[in-house]
Amino acid sequence: MAATINDVARVAGVSISTVSYALSGKRPIGEKTRQRIESAILELQYQPNAGARALAGRRTYILAVTEPLRPDTYTPAHMAFVLAAATAARAYDYDVLLLTQDEATGGLHRVTSSRLVDGVIVLDVLAEDERAELVRSLDVPAALVGIPADTDGLVCVDLDFEAAARLAVDRLADGGHRVVGLLGHPPSVYARGSNFPLRFREAFVTHAAERDLEVRLGAPERTIAGVREAVAEILGPDRDLTGLVMHCEDTIQMRTLDVLCAAGLRVPQDVSVISAASTFDTSTFAPPLDVIPLIPAESCSRAVELTIAQITGTVEPRVELIPPTYVDRGSTAPRRP
Amino acid sequence: MAATINDVARVAGVSISTVSYALSGKRPIGEKTRQRIESAILELQYQPNAGARALAGRRTYILAVTEPLRPDTYTPAHMAFVLAAATAARAYDYDVLLLTQDEATGGLHRVTSSRLVDGVIVLDVLAEDERAELVRSLDVPAALVGIPADTDGLVCVDLDFEAAARLAVDRLADGGHRVVGLLGHPPSVYARGSNFPLRFREAFVTHAAERDLEVRLGAPERTIAGVREAVAEILGPDRDLTGLVMHCEDTIQMRTLDVLCAAGLRVPQDVSVISAASTFDTSTFAPPLDVIPLIPAESCSRAVELTIAQITGTVEPRVELIPPTYVDRGSTAPRRP
DNA sequence: GACCGTCGTCGAAGCGCTTCGACGACACTG
DNA sequence: CAGTGTCGTCGAAGCGCTTCGACGACGGTC
C-alpha cells in the first residue's frame, strides 16, 4: 500500500497536522521538524491521496477542458488549444479532464456538480453556445476562450479578431492595394456560427470599406478543386486583386500558394499575402508568409489564470481581448503602379 | 451547497447506508424505499461527491491517457486516438485525464501514486518507451496501444501491422505487380523508433521478398518538394513501378495523388495504390483509395476494456493484435501486360 | 514581574462516502 | 414449531486529509 500522512507523521515523530501544515505552508514549522518531515516523505515516497485531499480540502486541483471537436472542425488547430490549456494548467499544479464531443456539454454538469473539477475551460465557443448558458447557470469558476453572443456574467478571453482584421487591412491599404481578398473557412464553418471566423470577416469587410478598398470574399471547400475555384473567383477575371488575406486552415493556405504559383503570380511582387490568426507555423511555407499569429498558449494561459483566480477568490465578469501582432516575413510589398 | 447523501437519506426517510446501497445496487432494496430514494435524488439534484467516493470506495473512475504528442508527430492521427479513448472510457462511466508532452511521462507517476486515476491508457508507444517501464514498475492497471520492444508483464493492443503489410503486398502480388513501392513517414519518424511504421515497413519488405517482388522505399518529407522527389525516385527512371502502398499522413497521400496525376499516371490503370493503416477517410480522395483502415475506436475501446478489467479483477499480460481488413474502392487493378 | 503576542505543535472534529456486521421480519424446511 | 435462510434496513467504523482551537514556550513591553 501507498504511504499515508500517518506513516509520515510516525516516521518523523510528529503529529499528522504538523505534516499537513509543513506540506501546505499554512502555519510556520520549525526548521528541524521540517527537515525530519521532508526526509520521511522522501523515504516513504509519500504522495498525498487525491481523494482525501479533495474531500477535506474542497479542492481537486483538476480543471475540465471542454472542446466539442465537432465533425467539421479542424482538429490540429483545436487540439493546439487543448494542449495549451493542459500545459498552462500544469503550471498552476492543476490537471486537466478532457470533455469532448457529446460529453463537452453533458459532462460539464456531471463533473461540476460532483465536484470532480474545480473549474472549467471552455474552448471553441460558438456565438450561441449551450456551454455558455450552462456555465452561467452552474455558477462554476470558468473561462471561455472565445466570445459568445451573450457574455453577461462570463469571463471570456480571446485574440482581438476585429483588431487583427483591421491590422491586415491596414497593412494592405498602406501598401497602396485597392482590391483585396479574404480567403476564409469552408461555408459550413460560417453556417455553424463559430464565432471567430464571423468576427474576423465582419471586421475585415467593415474596415476595408473604411479604407476605401474593394473586397472579395472566398470560402473554399477543403479540396484542391475547391481552393482553385475560390482563388480564381477572388482574383477576378482581370486578375486585378493584389492583396490577399487568408484566415483558414494550413492545408488551404498551402494549396492557395500552390495555386497562385501555378497561375504565374509571384508573392509578393504580384500579390501580397497575409496569413491571419493562424495557429501554425507559416515560416516554412513557400514562400514564408507574413502572419498575425493566434497563439493558443497566450489565450489559454490567461484563461487558466482567470479560472484559478475565481477558484481562490473572486473575479469580475469580463471580456479580455488580446491585441494582435504583425510578423513580417516579406510576403507583402507595396502595390506596383 | 450541493446536496449530500445525508440530505437524500433525510428526505427519503432512510439511513445513508440504504441510499448508498440503492445507488450501488450491492444489496437488495425494497421497491417502495427505492422509489422514495429516487425521488429524493431527483428533488435534490443529488450528485455523489467525487472526492468522498474516491476516498471511501478506492475508485476515482478516472483513467489517465498519456499521449506525448512529440514535436514531429502528426497531431490529427494521434488526437483521433485520444478522442477514441475518451469516448470508450465514458462508455464505462470513466472520465479521462489528459497527460501530454512532458507530463506524459512525469505526470504518470504523480497521478497513479496519488491515486488520482484508477488506470492508464498509453498511446503512441515507442519501441523503447519510458512509459512502458514506468507502467511495469508502478504496477498500475494499464493498457498500451502499440507494442514496445519488451512487452513483458504488459497488456498491449494494436492493429496487426505485419498482417496489414502482408495484406497489401498480397493484393498487389496477386494482381500480377512485380515492382512495388512503399511511401512511408518522414525519416525522423523512423529515427525516433516509433514502433508501428517500423513494424509495417519490415513486414512489407519481408513479405514482398517472399512474394518475389522488387521493393522500393520512400520516406518523404512533408513538403511538396519532398513528396515530388520521393515519388520520382520510387517510380524509377523507367517508371516501371506499378504498385504503390502509402503508409503516411493524409497530406502526403493527397499530394502523392496530385504528383501522380501531374506525371500523367492514372490510378489504377497505370499504378495501383493502397492506403495502409490510415486513420482518416480515403473515400473523399481523388480518386478514392483502397484502404486497410486503422480504426482508433477499435484499439482504444479494447484498451479501455482491458484496463478496467484489471481494475476490477485480474488480467494476464498479453499482446492483442487486431486483424486488418481490406476495403476495396477501385484504386487497384491487375497489372497490364 | 505581570501581560501580551508570536511561534511551533498537537488533538480532534469533520469532509461525504462505502461497507461490514447486526438484526428484525418473514418464508421456508423437515 | 424450532431451525435456517434470505431480504431489507440501520448504525458505526473507517478512508486520508485539512483546519480550528488550544496550549506551552518564548521574547518583548510597560
From TrEMBL, chains A, B:
Q: Which InterPro entries match?
A: HTH_LacI (IPR000843), LacI/GalR-like_sensor (IPR046335), Lambda_DNA-bd_dom_sf (IPR010982), Peripla_BP_I (IPR028082)
CDD domains, from UniProt? HTH_LacI
For the keyword DNA-binding, the answer is yes
Residues in HTH lacI-type domain copies: 3-57
Superkingdom of this protein's organism: Bacteria
- Gene Ontology terms, MF aspect: DNA-binding transcription factor activity; transcription cis-regulatory region binding
UniProt name for this protein: LacI family DNA-binding transcriptional regulator
The organism of origin for this protein? Actinotalea soli
